[in-house]
């Protein structure tokens, strides 16, 4: 039986992962902004076999509330075997270019608030000397592209932070896995003109994430072919890359 904290628990990928863990009689502490959707998720997980499910409603982008949330989590679970951080937003790049306020807000939502939460979680888990921090970043962080460089910059910051955190916490028996999804069929991506062959389903992505956590993978591209796609994109010389509409 695992004790699992999920932040951004109502997202499509997080919910799909939780359903897999519920079948193992896991205990959950679920954090999300939308209280109604969160309660629906809790009811679903209980029906699927979860041992216990504790909901916690908050705006996770408010870093000032992180410590209070973690206190509630530890009171409910006592210890955390897996923490999945799965929240974020997909900003409109044009709006970010025109508004400093929007750009900074979106960077905070996807980058600095995640780093703030990870800092507190890392210290907690270093004391307990076990567990896994699973952080959903993105392939967008592998290279800055004109179509989404504010989002990509935030995810790049998260990925780099996780790399350093992984090395730090290894000595404490805590594993950090950076998860880099490509295109996934979720409410966040619906309406975008995406190549259908490259769009994965949340249930498939969730199975790969759960497996990657069990195998203690360091960096997980999902689906796996994105590792090759991003290798090619990173290999494009800058004089050529800056002329591409990516």
CATH architecture: 3-Layer(aba) Sandwich
Which structural class do you get from the secondary structure elements?
alpha/beta
Largest beta-sheet characterization: 7 strands, parallel
Element-level helix/strand string: EHEHEHEHHEHEHEHH
Can you put this structure into words, describing what you see?
This protein has helices at residues 12-22, 35-47, 66-77, 93-98, 100-128, 149-170, 202-214, 226-235, 238-241, and strands at 3-7, 27-32, 52-57, 82-85, 132-136, 175-181, 219-222. The protein has 246 residues and is an alpha/beta fold. The protein has one domain: NAD(P)-binding Rossmann-like Domain (Rossmann fold, 3-Layer(aba) Sandwich). The protein has a 7-stranded parallel sheet with strand order 3-2-1-4-5-6-7, with helices on both faces. Helix 1 runs parallel beside helix 2 (35-47), helix 1 packs across helix 7 and helix 5 packs parallel to helix 6 (149-170). The model has no long low-confidence stretch (mean pLDDT 95).
What secondary-structure arrangement, pairings included, does this model have?
Elements: E1 3-7, H1 12-22, E2 27-32, H2 35-47, E3 52-57, H3 66-77, E4 82-85, H4 93-98, H5 100-128, E5 132-136, H6 149-170, E6 175-181, H7 202-214, E7 219-222, H8 226-235, H9 238-241
Parallel strand pairs: 1-2, 1-4, 2-3, 4-5, 5-6, 6-7
Helix pairs in contact: 1-2, 1-7, 5-6
């Amino acid at each position: 039986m695992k004790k699992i904290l999920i932040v951004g628990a109502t997202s499509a990928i997080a919910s799909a992962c939780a359903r897999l863990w519920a079948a193992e009689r896991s205990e959950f502490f679920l954090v999300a902004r939308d209280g109604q959707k969160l309660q629906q998720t809790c009811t679903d997980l209980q029906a699927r076999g979860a041992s216990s499910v504790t909901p916690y409603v908050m705006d996770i982008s408010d870093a000032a509330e992180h410590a209070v949330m973690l206190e509630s989590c530890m009171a409910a679970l006592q210890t955390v075997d897996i923490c999945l951080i799965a929240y974020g937003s997909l900003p409109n790049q044009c709006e970010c270019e025109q508004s400093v306020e929007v750009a900074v807000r979106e960077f905070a939502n996807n980058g600095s608030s995640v780093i703030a939460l990870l800092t507190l979680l890392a210290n907690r888990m270093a004391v307990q000397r076990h567990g896994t921090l699973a952080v959903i970043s993105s392939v967008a962080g592998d290279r800055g592209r004109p179509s989404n460089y504010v989002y990509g910059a935030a995810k790049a910051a998260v990925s780099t932070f996780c790399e350093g955190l992984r090395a730090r916490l290894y000595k404490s028996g805590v594993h950090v896995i950076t998860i880099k999804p490509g295109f996934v069929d979720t409410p966040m991506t619906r309406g975008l003109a995406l190549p259908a062959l490259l769009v994965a389903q949340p249930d498939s992505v969730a199975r790969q994430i759960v497996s990657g956590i069990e195998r203690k993978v360091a960096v997980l591209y999902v689906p796996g072919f994105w590792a090759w796609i991003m290798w090619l994109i990173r290999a494009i010389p800058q004089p050529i890359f800056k002329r591409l509409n990516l």
